[in-house]
Amino acid sequence: MAIHDVLLDSLFNYPLLTILTISTTLILFSSIYRVFMHPISHIPGPLIPKLTSLWLYYHAYIGDEASTIHQLHEQYGLYVRVSPNEVDISDSEAIAPIYVTKGGFTKAPCYANFDIDGHKTIFSTTDMEYRKPRASAVVGMFSTKSIRENEAAIYGCVDRMVSRMKEESKTGLPVNILNLARSLAVDAVSTHLFQENYNATSEKGNRLSVSAFVDAFVAVGRFFYLPNTAFTWLEWALKKFVPDEHTATSMEVVDKFVDNLVSSTLKSATNYPGRLMAIGLERSEVKAQCKDLIFAGTDSTGMNLATICRQLSLNPDKHETLRKEILVNAQAGENRQDIQSLPYLSAVVKEALRISMANPTRLPHIVPSTGLRLSNITIPPGTMVGLSAYSLHFNPTVFPSPQSFIPERWLPDQVNDSMNKSFFAFGAGSRACIARNLAMTELYWATERIVEGDVLRGARVQDGKEGDVEIYEWFNSSVKGEKIELVWKR
Fold this sequence. Notes:
Layout: H1 3-13, H2 15-37, H3 47-51, H4 54-62, H5 65-76, E1 79-83, E2 86-89, H6 95-100, E3 106-107, H7 128-138, H8 144-149, H9 151-169, E4 175-176, H10 177-194, H11 211-218, H12 228-241, H13 245-263, H14 272-278, H15 283-314, H16 316-330, H17 343-356, E5 365-366, E6 372-374, E7 377-379, E8 384-387, H18 389-393, H19 417-422, H20 436-452, E9 459-460, E10 471-472, E11 478-479, E12 485-488
Helix pairs in contact: 1-2, 9-10, 9-20, 10-15, 11-13, 11-15, 13-15, 14-15, 15-17, 15-20
């Protein structure tokens, strides 16, 4: 009897057993191929990630991806296989070829999960030709010159936030500085880029109207690596069967703000939506681009500024060193330096960016047809590769006592090339954060005003919470409990 006859006879007489046998055989051969014969089988790593992407999906979902993979690097070295076709790299030498040289590698398809309202954004698109006209239209608004021209308005946002912090510090109750930092971030973004202040610093209550909107997009990071089709269905199911009234309300508030903004903006306007409309974009896409900016500009900068305030409260000696530098500079008259050139203030900001983990996980890109060769390791075309701020910033060889807040390491006579190469707070290359100049300006100006006004005098972290801030390590981190609190001694 021919083999195919035997198979047909088995299928009809023992269908479940036959299907199980065939399935088991296919899984076995697939597993053998992935472990021993796959083009990246030479990259070390634990067994399960070599067999299935479910391992990576799981750790991304529960929010310990970055620290878990960091531990794998300590065990396996600079290159670790974290899924059947993905390699995580903890070597700053890989930054240039992946993100910088000739524009870097193409972003991974999973960035589509950050599309907004059916539109690609300047951040989420993988197509450089799609991105180029949109980024070119608005990039000038993020220049140092443009920001300086709007200095008074941005400082106005800073001063309102500082006044709010002073006011809340007198209540004797815990103050959620993450909430206050976010209020400044959204006001600065809206004031400078939209020429329409969101006015979050005037909002009372424990949570900003924009926060649930921001947190909803942060939560996308739980499912970042899923294929876009699977993500789309999952997102639909969550909205339908697990609705969140607070998030829905926040979405409506932001939608209304953006809708009014875009509706009242002319194509000839010099603000962010006006520049995008001037190149022929539909209003629906302009709204999506503005919402993306509100999300990104609020979340990361809010986390970074809250980290600065918390660390200066935990380290009063460093606060005093910084305060002395700022006050001396303020009294220097014509010899006053631009605050971004002050060495200790710069060190404080950079160290906070290093440890805040606003964006802890890898930025995945796809190896092109030419392949990637580094440190005698060859990674074939089509492989997903990336580096994470977590592994780079917490590398003890580059940053001794990596979990500790030590601004002094960034002073001119202490910093070295390895530190600068490993600094990855804003990514790198042509796809680095487009708003990094504005974000840095906010951090410098806000820190200056907070310290100069002695707002943190007497501030302390609540007893028992002096350790690291616990976060969900998603693409954008999420603080567990959504609070970073300080209490002022009365």
